[in-house]
Design brief:
- The protein is α+β, with helices and mostly antiparallel strands and 167 residues long.
- It has 2 domains: 70 residues, no CATH class; 83 residues, no CATH class.
- The chain has 5 helices and 6 strands, in the order ββαββββαααα.
- The strands form 2 sheets. It has a 4-stranded mixed sheet with strand order 2-1-3-4, with helices on one face. A two-stranded antiparallel ribbon has the order 5-6.
- α2 packs antiparallel against α3 and α2 packs parallel to α4.
- The longest helix is centred in the middle third of the chain and has 22 residues.
- It is elongated.
- The two termini are 37 Å apart.
Length: 167
């Protein structure tokens, strides 16, 4: 799978996900055909960025269609995409680290059980669920997340309610 990002005048951009070079070429032709309808003009195609997303294309060093082919993860609406595990680091590991910092800060206060649940829902799960709803969740992330959340919920002590009752 390929990802192509086209820049428009007025900083409008679109993202195309295509399976092969022919699909990319056809998609770019379609974009050029539709652009006049909306009174838009596609910038120089050489400024258009593309990314190989399937591992079989990872070592491909060619630059078909005169596009700029990226090797680093690309961020789209807060979600990182790449052809390797680097996107997992940005989408989950950094967010869990930030969550741990927030939870450590809030654990210094004597919050009620419902207050802690509110903190978990608002600061903790919202960003991670956003990433999880748009990408594959790596193994071990859910276990790590559960451990950190329950540790905060029960003040780093053994839980007072069975976890089955909480779900």
């Amino acid at each position: 799978m390929l990802r192509v990002s086209c820049s428009w005048v007025f900083d409008l951009s679109i993202n195309l996900f295509c399976w092969d070079i022919t699909s990319v070429d056809n998609a770019l032709c379609l974009v050029n055909d539709i652009a006049p309808v909306f009174d838009l003009k596609l910038h120089n195609v050489k400024k258009t960025k593309a990314l190989w997303l399937l591992s079989k294309w990872r070592n491909n060093r060619t630059t078909p269609l005169q596009l700029s082919w990226l090797r680093d993860p690309v961020e789209i609406l807060g979600i990182f995409f790449s052809d390797n595990k680097a996107s997992d680091h940005y989408n989950f590991n950094l967010k869990i680290k930030k969550l741990r910092i927030h939870l450590d800060t809030w654990s210094l206060r004597s919050l009620t059980f419902f207050g802690k649940v509110l903190i978990i829902k608002s600061l903790g799960l919202s960003q991670i669920l956003y990433s999880a709803s748009n990408t594959n969740v790596p193994k071990g992330i859910i276990t790590t997340l559960k451990r950190k959340l329950f540790s905060f919920l029960w003040n780093k002590k053994k839980g007072k309610i069975k976890r089955e009752g909480l779900y």
